[in-house]
Specification:
2 domains, FAD/NAD(P)-binding domain, binds flavin-adenine dinucleotide, five-stranded parallel sheet, globular, 25% helix, 381 residues
Length: 381
């Protein structure tokens, strides 16, 4: 090798989901060939998780994108293996497959671990949502199931899917001329509170129109099958079926100090992991109260900018200032929701039935949304 040739800066991205892919695309744009990117992920595909809520209703399945094709296209080395532990002193990641991968910068984008919170409920696992809910929707269509409760654990996981499932179920019952009584109970003080007041008001109207009873600030228990206890107040619901969101926990990452009891990875405003040089985290794995694709993508962009700056690429890295964008399905038309997040609540709340941001995909992501859109267009041609 020519000794004057500069070695590229080695970036290791652990995780091939929203945050991992967004960061890879951002780094290609911001640091180009200053970086050599390796992506470590056990799954061969990126699945567009938000669209999985439609699967039990017999709509088309969520799209799957082969990661090897994406990696080839954007110049990323793909390793189909899994993160096992971090040796920060030597800047090495040890994998489940026994490899040792060196890095100059590491992005932990491993997503969250899903754990059932309620004993007597169907806890959503989006990898098998059709199998979990298809029969239930058929029972609603056939008039065999009339009372449902949709509940969330006391720490709200992803905001949208529970609302979408409740709305789509109500519509399906209406379309099939079946009576249904749906209660939606969450710890939020208003529907989709993270999106702010204007969104909450619109969504409350939508729920009312669909005959869905929303119970705010609810901490639920399921003491027996078909029974939901709502705190405070100890109100008891008797229903045919209970559908719950899982509780989310941080991923297993030995070597990364985690002060948060739920295992999420601490980050600063540049998505750096405090105390670990060259280590960043983004997405559902990171310690931020809101778990959402658009938030994961913004954190990935912030981390990518900070990593690009380490390579000497031009540009001032920005700080994480969360804005949440979401597309709510289940009404006549999709609703486009946005808010700045301040102190765990949505401010500057905006709701529209027209897109209000560019590349208005279900997951708003600066680089990933247009990239997937162009792949989808090419696939149709
Ligand atoms: C049903 C549903 C609907 C949703 N709807 C929306 C929506 O409408 N809009 C929205 O913005 N968000 C939505 N979300 C939330 C959104 O999907 C997540 O916030 C987002 O996927 C988080 O991205 P991530 O990259 O942090 O994690 P993930 O997308 O979960 O990706 C994690 C990646 O890490 C990999 N991984 C796991 N363990 C390891 C390991 N040990 N080593 C290496 N890699 C590993 C996984 O294989 C995966 O590739 C929804 C979620 C669900 C479940």
């Amino acid at each position: 090798m020519n000794p004057n040739e500069k070695q590229p800066f080695e970036v290791l991205i652990a995780g091939g989901g929203v945050a991992g892919l967004e960061a890879a695309l951002a780094l290609r744009e911001l640091a180009d060939d200053r970086v050599a990117i390796t992506m470590l992920t056990p799954e061969p595909e990126f699945v567009y998780r938000p669209m999985r809520v439609r699967e039990p209703f017999a709509y088309s399945a969520a799209r799957h994108y082969p990661l090897d094709e994406i990696a080839r296209e954007i110049g990323v080395e793909l390793k189909q293996d899994a993160f096992k532990w971090l040796d920060p002193g030597h800047r090495d990641v040890h994998t489940e497959g026994g490899e040792q991968l060196a890095y100059d910068a590491l992005l932990l984008a491993l997503g969250a671990r899903l754990s059932p919170r309620f004993k007597h409920a169907v806890t959503l696992d989006d990898r098998r949502i059709d199998e979990q809910l298809h029969g239930l929707i058929q029972d609603v269509e056939g008039g065999y199931t009339h009372k449902l409760a949709f509940i969330a654990p006391s720490r709200m996981p992803w905001p949208l899917p529970l609302y979408e499932l409740a709305l789509m179920t109500a519509r399906r019952a209406f379309d099939m001329n079946q009576d249904i009584s749906i209660t939606l109970a969450t710890p939020e003080d208003a529907p989709l509170a993270i999106f702010g007041t204007a969104v909450s008001e619109t969504v409350q109207e939508l729920l009312t129109e669909h005959g869905i009873l929303f119970v705010p600030s609810a901490h639920c228990e399921t003491p027996a099958p078909g029974e939901v206890l709502l705190h405070p107040g100890s109100r008891r619901l008797h229903v045919d079926r209970v559908i719950a969101l899982p509780e989310l926990f941080g991923p297993s990452t030995p070597g990364v100090p985690k002060p948060d009891g739920h295992g999420f990875i601490p980050i600063d405003t540049h998505c750096r992991v405090p105390g670990l040089e060259g280590v960043f985290a983004a997405g559902d794995a990171a310690d931020f109260a809101v778990k959402h694709g658009s938030v994961a993508a913004q954190q990935a962009d912030v981390a990518a900018e900070a990593i690009a700056a380490l390579t000497g690429a031009p540009g001032e890295p920005s700080k994480f200032q969360p804005v949440i964008h979401g597309v709510l399905l289940g009404a006549d038309k999709p609703l486009y929701l946005s808010a700045h997040i301040t102190g765990g609540h949505g401010s500057s709340s905006e709701v529209s039935d027209e897109p209000t941001w560019s590349s208005p995909a279900k997951i708003a992501a600066k680089y990933l949304a247009p990239y997937l859109e162009s792949r989808d267009r090419a696939a149709v041609r």
